[in-house]
Amino acid sequence: QVRLVESGGGLVQPGGSLRLSCAASGIMFRIHAMGWYRQAPGKQRELVASISTAATTNYAESVKGRFTISRDNTKNTVYLQMNSLKPEDTAVYYCKPTSANDWGQGTQVTVSS
Fold first, then answer.
1. 1, 7, 13, 90: which has the fewest C-beta neighbours closer than 10 Å?
2. In the prediction, which pLDDT does 1 show?
3. Could you tell me the mean pLDDT of each successive run of 10 residues in the chain, 113 residues long?
4. For residues 22 and 71, what is the distance between their CA atoms, to the nearest angstrom?
């Protein structure tokens, strides 16, 4: 059974940084492309960043240059470094394999002064 545990969210001021972590279990992590998604109140869930098994990365236009996705296959963990945060980045952030529909509980990120 796939289990995804996101952590690292919190309240941060505009311009601040956070690093999210997602620990995966129940899957052969290294053979899965992974993605970070977010869902803001009243909006659809969207893909923010993805990383392939070869560590090729892709980003939504809204976060390019500010967010960095990375993975550590020895720890079955994917990370999202978020810099220069904006109020519009406020959302619940989730991770999952891009080819699967298993979701964790997410971690809340709130950007506010």
1. 1
2. 87
3. 96 98 94 97 96 97 98 97 98 95 94 97
4. 9
Cα–Cα distance measured from residue 98 to residue 2, given in angstroms and rounded to the nearest whole number:
13
How confident is the model at residue 68, as a pLDDT? Answer: 98
Residue 89: both structure tokens together: 């980045």
Q: Hey, how many other C-beta atoms are within 10 angstroms of the C-beta on 73? A: 14
- Please tell me the total number of residues recorded for the chain in this structure: 113
Contacts of 71 (CB under 8 A, 6+ apart): 34, 51, 55, 77, 78, 79
Dist. CA 16–CA 24, nearest whole Å: 27
Tell which residue, 50, 3, 5, 55, has the closest CA to residue 26: 3
Sheet with 77-82, strands from edge to edge, namely 3-7, 18-25, 77-82, 67-72
Token pair for 31: 């053979």
Q: Which residue has the tokens 């289990």?
A: 3
| 80: nearest Cα among 5, 29, 4, 6 | 6
